[in-house]
Recover the amino acids of this structure.
């Protein structure tokens, strides 16, 4: 029996393989510092559980319930009085994420809840009572939003992990904080593109674009392998508009070919023409042979392909090779020095 049968018909891609043009916009390789996502957190109580919550013998959980009762005008003098509530409540961590574009007062976000203690068996049927949420990085713990609502269990195999759709309402607006001191913006190069040559190219492209408007002065400087600082010319009184112009600046050809893989999203991104040197890689039931100046996929037809990475990926895709296996093959080629490109795995 052949090790792998070649499929005759075309199949739908099980992964995304994109050949990226050499000329890129800055927005494709950089983000503006201050556009990062903001994580909101809090601790709350899920009530209404049918015996699957925290144990009544768990003192820490009963203390949370006692504090909540006191805040709402029903002080509890003895924690033993709450033991009967055991199983019907669970103390949970509550989290939500503000997108990097910011958010306005009154807008809503999805909320995620997970038990703090190990005695909770399931959050199914529970309701999160009103919980204040704050930025986990702020020292003053300012309340930015309030979370509450019925808990939805999306994965029945994980009954202690739940989501509350639109369960958080923002009490304050959170804007992008992209303006640095002295009318300056900072471009952050994405990890899969970070290099000294890319930092230099970003700075060069910005300086060329705004050379006349800046009075024949350079306004961009590479601060590190991942950061480029840009001073805003005097003509621009709106830093957001200038930031938008920065994102549209075109970069010239970058010299280094790259293969960027993301196992979680199932993507393989190839920049430039990537070749493969002679090698033989065996993975599961598949053998990839790149000897004799060609890439050969050993299957029933013994078909041989050119030794370009794009052709190899296309052949693997037609054979419906899972994305995880493709990435493993690419990893082995890179580790053996046979993949002539920088290999980057995005976690």
């Amino acid at each position: 029996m052949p090790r792998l049968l070649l499929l005759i018909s075309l199949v739908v891609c099980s992964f995304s393989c994109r050949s990226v043009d050499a000329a890129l916009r800055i927005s494709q390789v950089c983000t503006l510092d201050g556009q990062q996502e903001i994580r909101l957190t809090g601790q709350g109580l899920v009530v209404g559980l049918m015996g699957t919550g925290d144990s009544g013998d768990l003192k820490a959980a009963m203390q949370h319930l006692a504090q909540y009762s006191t805040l709402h005008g029903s002080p509890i003098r003895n924690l033993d009085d709450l033991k009967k509530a055991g199983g019907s409540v669970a103390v949970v961590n509550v989290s939500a994420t503000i997108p990097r574009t910011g958010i306005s007062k009154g807008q809503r976000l999805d909320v995620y809840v997970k038990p703090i203690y190990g005695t909770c068996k399931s959050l199914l049927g529970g309701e999160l009572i009103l919980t204040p949420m704050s930025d986990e990085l702020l020292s003053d713990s300012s309340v930015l939003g309030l979370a509450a609502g019925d808990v939805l269990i999306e994965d029945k195999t994980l009954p202690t992990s739940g989501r509350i759709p639109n369960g958080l309402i923002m009490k304050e607006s959170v804007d992008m904080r992209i303006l640095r001191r002295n009318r300056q913006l900072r471009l952050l190069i994405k990890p899969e593109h970070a290099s000294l040559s890319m930092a230099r190219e970003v700075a060069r492209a910005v300086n060329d674009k705004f050379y006349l408007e800046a009075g024949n002065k350079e306004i961009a400087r590479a601060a590190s392998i991942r950061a480029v600082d840009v001073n805003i010319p005097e003509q621009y009184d709106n830093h957001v508009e200038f930031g938008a112009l920065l994102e549209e600046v075109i970069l010239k050809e970058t010299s280094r070919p790259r293969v960027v893989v993301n196992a979680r999203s199932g993507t393989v991104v190839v920049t430039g023409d990537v070749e493969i040197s002679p090698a033989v890689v065996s993975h599961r039931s598949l053998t990839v042979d790149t000897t004799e100046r060609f890439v050969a996929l050993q299957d029933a037809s013994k078909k041989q392909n050119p030794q370009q990475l794009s052709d190899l990926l296309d052949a693997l895709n037609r054979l419906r090779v899972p994305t995880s296996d493709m990435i493993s093959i690419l990893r082995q080629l890179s580790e053996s020095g046979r993949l002539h490109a920088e290999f980057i795995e995005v976690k």
Summary: Helices lie at 26-29, 59-71, 196-209, 239-247, 309-318, 323-335. The chain has a mean pLDDT of 80.
